[in-house]
Write a structure and sequence with these properties.
The chain has 10 helices and 11 strands. The chain is α/β, with parallel strands linked by helices. It has 2 domains: 87 residues, Rossmann fold, CATH 3.40.50.10860; 123 residues, Rossmann fold (3-Layer(aba) Sandwich). The protein binds NADP nicotinamide-adenine-dinucleotide phosphate. The site of NADP nicotinamide-adenine-dinucleotide phosphate (NAP) has 24 residues, from helix 10.
Length: 283
């Protein structure tokens, strides 16, 4: 058996095409969706991520603004900059590229982003709304995971989903979205004993760790949907948590790295931005 690949590249193109049409309709009403990126310092990976997100904005017709702030910025100055963007009517979404330098308070900075402009879904109001099941912005990577799962055609209702990773930006929100979709959810992390005993029970397996080769074929239930959200580098090449060769032989569906969650995360960011602009315009 060879797993059916869940093509995140193709799906992200489709989502972006839908966004482009929605942006066009907004522009006909005189509204141009605006997305601001706040980049503190020169972290090379962050610079690359922001560049890719800017390019996606260009493809969709979203106006993007990148505010580059020095590594040495103080908390007070950073918050002043965030507050300025918060009050700017032409900016619909704000994204503080993480990580920010260690001397800064990440949670306090995110709290300066108004929840309705929080395209990343990281603000505590939005994170909380996911926990209690009310409306709010949802984090982009977990949304991408759910869309990749939908692409498989497998109904999540009643299935056992195992999520590896419990961060606030991928693991936990992904687990909560799976719960919302009526899965029975198990969350594993670095202190989990005998990881394989859990992963082997998973009808849906999501790995969000960042360790190449963490999941091998013998750890996967035959026919399972496997979604790799991890990003690791081996000899300069981007790879995920899943050992593709062996897992492909066992899984029913596989979202690989590269070409799975990565492009989907960016596409979901576009969707969130357009949705905010539409909501503001009462479309
Ligand atoms: P993170 O904050 O470092 O979290 C990693 C999680 O993995 C933690 O919960 C950790 O457990 C767990 N873990 C570490 N080693 C483990 C092991 N041996 N067995 C089981 N669990 C283990 O990272 P993150 O921000 O959630 O990101 C996770 C991965 O997704 C990274 O590779 C990141 O690059 C990638 N990512 C991808 C996208 C995308 O667009 N595709 C977006 C965001 C992140 P503890 O909690 O116990 O430490």
């Amino acid at each position: 058996m060879s797993a059916i690949l869940l093509d995140g590249k193709q799906l992200s193109r489709e989502l972006e095409a839908q966004c482009t049409e929605r942006v066009q309709r907004l522009k006909e009403q005189g509204i141009i969706p605006g997305l601001a990126f706040i980049l503190v310092g020169e972290d090379p990976a962050s610079v690359v991520y922001v560049r890719s997100k800017n390019k996606a904005c260009e493809r969709c017709g979203i106006r993007s603004v990148t505010l580059r702030l020095p590594e040495s910025i103080s908390q007070e100055e950073l918050e002043q900059e965030l507050n300025k963007l918060a009050g700017d009517e032409s900016i619909h979404g704000m994204l503080l590229q993480l990580p920010i330098p260690k001397h800064l308070d990440e949670a306090a900075a995110i709290a300066c982003i108004p929840p309705e402009k929080d395209v990343d879904g990281f603000h505590q109001m939005n994170a909380g709304s996911l926990v209690i099941g009310t409306d709010g912005m949802r984090a982009c990577s977990p949304l991408g995971i759910m869309d990749l799962l939908a692409l498989s055609g497998v109904d999540p209702c009643g299935k056992h989903a195992v999520v590896i990773g419990r961060s606030a930006i991928v693991g936990k929100p992904a687990a909560l979205l799976l719960l919302e979709a009526n899965c029975t959810v198990t969350i594993c992390h670095s202190k989990t004993e005998n990881l394989a005993s859990y992963t082997r029970q998973a009808d849906i397996l999501v790995s969000a760790v960042g360790k190449a080769g963490l999941i091998t074929g013998d750890m996967v239930k035959p026919g399972a949907v496997v979604i790799d959200a991890g990003i690791a580098r081996v000899e300069g090449k981007v790879t995920g948590d899943i050992e593709r060769g062996s897992v492909e032989q066992v899984a029913g569906y596989l979202s690989p790295v590269p070409g799975g969650c990565g492009p989907m995360t960016i596409a979901e960011l576009m969707v969130n931005t357009v949705s905010i602009a539409e909501k503001k315009a009462h479309v």
